[in-house]
Structure formats: C-alpha cells, structure tokens
Amino acid sequence: MASSNPFLGNLPFGHSPACDAEVPADAPEGSYTYALVKSAPEVPADECETETLAVEVLIRWGNSLLHVAHLTPPRDFHVGEQAGAEGGCDFFVPAERLGAARVPLVLVGEGGEVSVVIPSGTTGMVELGSCKMTVAQAIASGRATPCGALDGARRIALPLGGRAKLDLGDFGFEVAVGRAGRRVAGKVSIDRRSLPFTALSTLLHVGLLAAMAAFMPPLAMADDGVVSAEQAYLMAQALAATAERELPEASDGAEARPSEAEGGTGAAAVGESGKAGSATSRKTGGRFEIEGPKDNLDVRISRAQALDDAARFGMIGVLQAGVGGDPNALSAPWGGVDTLGSGERSVIGNIWGATIDESGGVGGLGLTGVGEGGDGRHLGVGMGPLGTIGHGNGLGDGQGFGPGHGASRFASGAGHKPSAPRMRTGTPSVSGRIPPEVIQRIVRQNFGRFRLCYENGLRNSPNLTGRVSVGFSIGRDGAVSSVQNGGSDLPDAGVVSCVVRSFYGLSFPPPDAGIVTVTYPLLFSPSGG
C-alpha cells in the first residue's frame, strides 16, 4: 500500500512520478519523506525576475536554518564574531567553530564578479552551470585559487546560475548567484455592497466604547478615580520584584571591629536564601535557639518532613511521638530525625537578634530572602564558613564575627557592617527572535549565582575587578544549549569559568524561529566605602 502524500494532488494511484516505491502501511515516522511534485509548467523568468544581479546566502546549523540574506546589488558578506563599524560581521558565528574571528563568505570584485570563499577544512559541492564538482575537485583542477583575504582559504568565481554548498563542522553555508525578484504590485479593492454593514458595525462598537467610558465606575471604586495607598504599595512591590535589588553600600568609616565580646560559629546553609524566623510571628529582634545541654557539642536540627509525617499519619504519628524533631526549633530537609541543641529553650527566630525570642521570618536559614536555605554551600545554619549551627562567623559560642563568647554588637548598631560587591551589566548583543529586554530580565533574576562565583574569588583576591563576557545560544525549547567565554578580562580564571557555567541553568521563552545567540557582559567590582 502506498503512503498517503498530501502534496500529490490527483495523481493516478497516489504515486509520485519521481518515485513509485511502495511504503508499508505500518512504516514508522521518519523512514520515508514527502516531496513537492511539479504539476504545472515553469513560470517564465521575465515575469518574476529583473535583470539586476543578486546573491542569496543561507546559513544552517545542522538541519536548522539560522539566516537568509539576499544581497541586491551583490556585496561582500562576512561571518564571525568580530564587532565594530569597520571590520564587522554580517552574522554571528563563534570564532572557535570558524577558526578565525572574521571570515569572508562572499567577495565581489571591481568588475562585479562574485566569488565564494572556501575556508580551510571545508567540504561540499560547487555547481557551475552544468558542471558539478566537489570542493576537493575544484581545488585540484585549479578553479579555486588562493584567497588573500583569509589565510589558507580558496576562492572560486560563481557565474550567473552558479551555486556552492559548503560544510564547516556543524555549520553549513549556501551561496547562489541569480536575478533579483520583481516586486509584487499590491492592489486594494473595496466591496461597495458591504459598506453599509461595515459602517453600522463601526457605529455600534464606537457607541459601546463611549458608553463604557461614560458609565465606568472609578478605578477600584476609589474616590475621584485616584489610586489608593494600598494599590500604590502593591504596584511598588510588583515593580520591585522584577528589578535587581542592590544591597546598600557601607557608609564611610564602616569597618569590622572584632572584639572579645563577639563570636559565634556557623556555616551558611545550602539552598536559596530565606530569612530565618516564624512565618506567623509579628515579633522582631529575636534570634533562634535550640534546647539542649549547655555543654552539648553535637548540635543538630531535624528534618521538616519527619515532623509532618509524625503529625499526619495515624499509628505512625503515635510511633514517632518523642522521636520527631522539636516543633519550636529550626528544621531543614537535610536534618536528622531529632533535634538537639545547647540552649535553655527552643525558639524560632532570626539568625541575629538582641534576645533569644520568637521573631518573624519565612522559615528559611539565612538573613534575607524567601527561600528555605541560607545561600551557602554547607549543611548548617549561620553566616560563616566554619562550624555547623550557630549565629555568626567566629570561634566562640555567641553571635557576630569575633573570637569571643559574648553577645553580638549588632543589636546596638555597632560591630561589623558589611557591604555587597558591585555587579553591573553591559550592553548585551542579541541575534535572534527574543527581545533583549526579556533576556536581560531573566539574567538579572539569576544575579545571585553569578555574585556567589565572584564572592568566592574575593576570598583570595579582595581587589578582584573586571568583566566577564558570556556568549551563549538559546535553543528552540528556550533552554541554553551552549555557553562559552565571550572575551573576559577578569584576572581570575576560576571565577570566569564559574560564571560561564552558571548560564547553563537559565531558561528563556522559546524563540519565534531558529536559535538565538547572545553575548552578555557582566562587570564586577569589590564593595566600596
């Protein structure tokens, strides 16, 4: 039984004149192809073409068509990633795939002769009228001569009707010389019989809009149609959520002053940063504590899921009674079965505070944010790189940044006042069907992962400053398919590599057509007083 081909029309027996092969009814999709079948004489060339010479350039990536250009009149065409008013490229292709930052694809001589350039390592076919040959045959026969515009490249002249199909790695280039197409003349016609109905419909819609404008109540039923204070607050929160939140810079003279009255050992927890504290409390200024023996060295918290299981499931709840974690203490998905601390009582509060008391938060393990972690790399609670669970970055059992065992100075406004590193964006370069504003918004929403890479570099080099330029491609599904260093000058290669890898986790809206290539610069500098 022959396959059903929607392009065959009324041809007898449903077969293509070019191929009369039988296709099984249960043949899997992809084991056969469809083809357009010529069903009428060719249109005379003078009806659809002019005498003007034109060059068509197609660029493919695998089976995906990336770019089509019609050069009328013919001109030079370059690909690569070199920028600038002079020496720029017509289409972006990574230099590592081409072997050069700028490669000529089409060159036009003084007499209007069109030549296609064949870079070193290129394969493909060249068609010169009725003569067809491979690239290797064209070079061996002497038709392809050395090209002075690119080292190791060859160029071959294409007459009218000539075509070249070149393959260089994953990229394919097609160049054809032909006549420019005629412009299609447009003509507007009006059906006079429908004019009365069109006018009546227009009047009806205008009347409805006017009635809505005249009788619509004020905005949100507010007096005089003004925006209420509550609405203004909600709109401000919505706008702030879409913008990058820059931490306030430290004032002049702010510096860390460790003393024997400060201390505390704790490591920032993994996961997205969230403010520690009770989601239902309205109190402020209190810090968390975990009940247990004062000399306990094995401080631990429980899994939040263990508490939930013990409360929800019948006999399991009875069996888990006394084994689950303390409901008045912090919990984390990576915690143990039970809770054991070194304080007088358990209370859910903030990381730092003047007293041991309940305080409002979102149930996280950090200073700020809406997540369930502390934006760190350790399985602990606190802000320092040492220890497991605590209230600071030190060696004692208090809170703060010093080596002592007393309370922190943060409650009284003294002590260490940190300021965040600066992170700014340059002007991104986007080639494809996604607006640059959308790309910039999504990248800004992920500034936290880039800042973490930079902060790790600041530990070894406090004055680390520079630019990281990331070049990446967005596939048809919106995922980042390839990422590379787009020309960075930050002296720390580890930070550059970390920032480049972080772009693999981004997700964008699917492009309208083809893939999208982006070069995004990020500027880093340490915090200033």
SSE order and pairing:
Layout: H1 45-48, E1 49-61, E2 64-71, E3 77-80, E4 91-92, H2 95-98, E5 102-108, E6 114-118, E7 123-128, E8 131-134, H3 135-140, E9 145-146, E10 154-157, E11 163-168, E12 171-181, H4 195-215, H5 229-242, E13 286-287, H6 304-312, H7 314-320, E14 355-356, E15 391-392, E16 399-400, E17 422-425, E18 429-431, H8 436-445, H9 447-460, E19 466-474, E20 480-485, H10 493-502, E21 516-525
Parallel strand pairs: 3-4, 13-14, 15-16
Antiparallel strand pairs: 1-2, 1-12, 3-5, 5-6, 6-10, 7-8, 7-11, 9-10, 11-12, 17-21, 18-21, 19-20, 19-21
Helix pairs in contact: 6-7, 9-10
Mean pLDDT: 77
Radius of gyration: 34 Å
- As residue ranges, the low-confidence spans are 1-19, 244-260, 409-416
Helix content: 10-25%
- The structure class reads alpha+beta
> What oligomeric arrangement do these chains adopt?
single chain
**How many alpha or pi helices?**
10
In whole angstroms, the N-to-C terminal distance is: 81 Å
Give the neighbour order of strands across the main sheet.
Answer: 2-1-12-11-7-8
Give me some keywords for this one.
529 residues; disordered N terminus; 21 strands; alpha+beta; 6-stranded antiparallel sheet
How would you describe the overall organization of this protein?
This protein is α+β, with helices and mostly antiparallel strands. The chain has ten helices and 21 strands. The strands form five sheets. It has a six-stranded antiparallel beta sheet with strand order 2-1-12-11-7-8. A six-stranded mixed beta sheet has the order 4-3-5-6-10-9. Strands 17, 18, 19, 20 and 21 form a five-stranded antiparallel beta sheet that branches. The N and C termini lie far apart (81 Å).
